[in-house]
Amino acid sequence: MVDCEETMAVTVSEAVRRRMSVRAFLPKPVPRDTVMEILDLARRAPSGGNVQPWHVHVLAGAPLEELRALVAGHIAAGQRERAQYDVYPPNLWEPHRSYRFQLGEELYRLLGIAREDKAGRLRQYDENYRFFGAPVAFFFSLDRRFGPPQWSDMGMLMQTIMLLAVERGLATCAQESWSSWPDTLAGFLDLAPGEILFSGMALGYADDAAPVNRLRSARAELKSFCTLHGL
């Protein structure tokens, strides 16, 4: 674990390099002041026309444990809900399909879960709904009347939160998987009728001993997606 003095000296470039999706957290609590400092700075994230379309719900302690237990009960009873949007387009095309497939294969390899072990893979996926043991959870929602530009604004807020977390020696995992529980979360978070949940996010201290946290997703070479015009 990086000590506090070093983390507060992290550059933006280093924070970008270090940020990763952590899927195993220590039970160590995150101070409330640290969470609030991150959110207070993150509100400087850009949004088109400064409309600031986001709403952030923060859970820790008893409310977080209550939600974990609630969703675990639904899963144990065989209950599932229908997501209100597609996280991925139907029939995802190349090369994006392969990017996603390769990430999944590497994840399950690190966990020792065979491809044919569908039940094991589902159990691991459902760890999302425990926030991988993280002590703090964020939920991000916005008014349904907003369109794709405002959804992209929400993504910039989330990225800002994730980089600020790295600076403070913390780890995160953005979780669009929570879009699969729209009814449960609407009731639990008391969302307004016109509000839609976009994503969750786990926040805490990474368990560096967990094999799953050795996963580093590959990135395509710059030349594969960047076209220069006049540069």
Give a structural overview:
By secondary structure, the protein is of the alpha+beta class. The protein has a single domain, classed as NADH Oxidase. The protein is about 40% helix and about 15% strand. The chain has a four-stranded antiparallel sheet, sandwiched between helices. The termini are far apart.
Quick structural gist:
This protein is 39% helix and 13% strand. It is of the alpha+beta class and 231 residues long.
Secondary structure topology:
Layout: H1 4-7, H2 12-18, H3 32-42, E1 55-60, H4 61-76, H5 96-111, H6 118-125, E2 136-143, H7 148-167, E3 171-175, H8 182-188, E4 195-204
Antiparallel strand pairs: 1-2, 2-4, 3-4
Task: Describe this protein with a few key phrases.
single chain; 231 residues; alpha+beta; NADH Oxidase; disordered N terminus
Q: State the CATH architecture.
A: 3-Layer(aba) Sandwich
Give the spatial strand order of the biggest sheet: 1-2-4-3
Distance between the termini: 41 Å
**Helical fraction:** 25-40%
User: What is the strand content?
Assistant: 5-15%
In CATH, the topology is named: NADH Oxidase
Supply the number of helical segments: 8
